[in-house]
Design brief:
This protein is mainly α. It is built from four helices and no strands.
Length: 104
């Protein structure tokens, strides 16, 4: 099961990094794929976002980068790890959905 979640996270994040005009943040689905993988390897610990748990999430996210090595160049890998580090410290690090908020 972890391999499936890892592959899904890698695919989603490679797609995000390789977008011709990437958004400032990954989508909710892309972030969700990373969070699902991190949860599957028990990187969340007790579920709180304590400094220790965030570091465990950051270290575990490196498996996604390692699996993307053959797919991305060096600059893309650096950007990928930066985004993964943000997700490690913020489970909701994604682009807000459109059509949210107050409309007239």
């Amino acid at each position: 099961m972890q391999d499936v979640l890892l592959n899904k996270a890698v695919n989603h994040m490679v797609d995000y990094i390789r977008e011709r005009y990437p958004a400032a943040y990954p989508s909710k689905v892309q972030t969700g794929a990373v969070n699902a993988y991190l949860h599957s390897v028990h990187a969340d610990g007790d579920g709180t976002m304590s400094e220790t748990n965030c570091e465990h999430r950051r270290i575990a996210s490196q498996a996604i980068s390692i699996n993307a090595i053959r797919l991305l160049n060096r600059n893309e890998l650096d950007r990928l790890q930066l985004v993964l580090d943000h997700i490690a410290y913020d489970k909701e690090y994604y682009m807000p959905e459109r059509n949210c908020g107050i409309h007239r």
